[in-house]
């Protein structure tokens, strides 16, 4: 669906919830992806202290999971353990599917810009900002120890040039709970080939400042904001690769039916997001506590999503019997809360593929769905596959509505063409 206007029109298709004993009707909605709101997302400078963010403690490698329905696996396979990741969390390596070619780190042997001259003090925000404006391959020379660079205003990524930012497993970009860390915003929709690659990097304490409040109306009409997506990264009409990165304590808009992405929000992407060997912890947003996609395929391999939260409430529906007010062309009811960790919305055969991931202790909002994963394919062309994964301890409402495939258990809220489970442990699936 092309979107040439500055604010994406919102698409709503109600679905009856099957198999979960639920009488509510969801309205799958296309969120507002306007370019005009990004000035509010970029935020402004604020004073902050410097200091690196520590990880959540080491984690032992995990063995194979028992096969559960929908796939040909007959039982668990021996786990390969894990590899140390940034921030102290051990990254799982139990995906047995072949990784795509793009899952390997980018070659950074010939960088366009090296930030720093060998000391921590030389790695300033101003030098990083200048490098990001040019794009290309960016590396760091900040000495041998870990270095945190306070981000005092949003780094605006070029839309006409591929950008690779390689932190060498020593660099943390810290938004100081004041600003969104990065923003890539092109006015078209699912057209660009431009790719942003983040690797061996930590992004923490990013925070959007939403500015477009939903018009005042009494509950249960929707409350909160229409904008403020992507605490660490907002991307429109670009393509994303994330390899060996940590996203922690990032925040997007806290309430609203169509906003979210505590760490990352990617919308209108031709090739979607590829995430490998990365960790998402303690991120929060109205929807998509950690990772949100709208009309963007999500492929996630060997990664951890833990303790993320969707902070909205009441989910999202279009119901004139409950709300007379109009927002985004609908009688919107509910203020979000879907997708405690991972959220994907839209259509056009944008799929979700999860392999070798751990999704643990994430939470949907009150009266909302998909404590672990929320996916709704408006036209039922999208598919969801869960392979070699462990998804447990997540809270929220749940349902699976698919044309073919098994129920995905109690951590999912899904409308899709098909579901597939291979050699995975999913809460609520025997």
Q: What would you say this structure looks like, in words?
A:
The chain has 430 residues and is mainly beta. It has one domain. It has two helices and 32 strands. It has helices spanning 38-42, 125-134, and strands at 12-16, 25-29, 82-84, 90-92, 113-115, 136-140, 147-150, 155-156, 163-174, 182-185, 195-204, 233-236, 239-248, 264-267, 273-276, 279-281, 284-285, 291-294, 298-301, 304-306, 309-310, 315-318, 332-336, 342-346, 352-355, 358-360, 373-377, 383-387, 390-392, 399-404, 412-422, 425-426. Helix 2 (125-134) links the parallel strand 5 (113-115) and strand 6 (136-140).
Nearest-integer average pLDDT: 85
| Helix coverage percent | under 10%
SS content category: mainly beta
* Total beta strand runs: 32
Q: Enumerate the spans where pLDDT stays under 50 for 5 or more consecutive residues.
A: 1-87
| Cα gyration radius (Å) | 20 Å
Shape: globular
Strand content: 25-35%
Q: What about the largest sheet?
A: 24 strands, parallel
